[in-house]
Design brief:
Number of strands: 2
Low-confidence stretches: none
Order of helices and strands: HHEEH
Helix content: 25-40%
Shape: globular
Radius of gyration: 13 Å
Strand content: 5-15%
Largest sheet: 2 strands, antiparallel
Strand order of the largest sheet: 1-2
Oligomer: single chain
Structural class: alpha+beta
Amino acid sequence: MAASTNEEEAAVGLAEIVPFLVESKLIECGANVTKIPNFQVCVLASNRLVTGENPASAAGFGHKMVELIKNK
């Protein structure tokens, strides 16, 4: 699963507002986190699970979903 990184949350002033940082919680639960520079596109797929890191990844996420559906 992808989510905004701790650094992205801090960059927009939310790190101290949200009840927890998703990246930290994912790591705490044993997830592998792939990070890229803030606010860049990051879409990852594993079988039928597709995740996008942040709003910049929305189009790539959609394209990947369409690709997987077409190749089903």
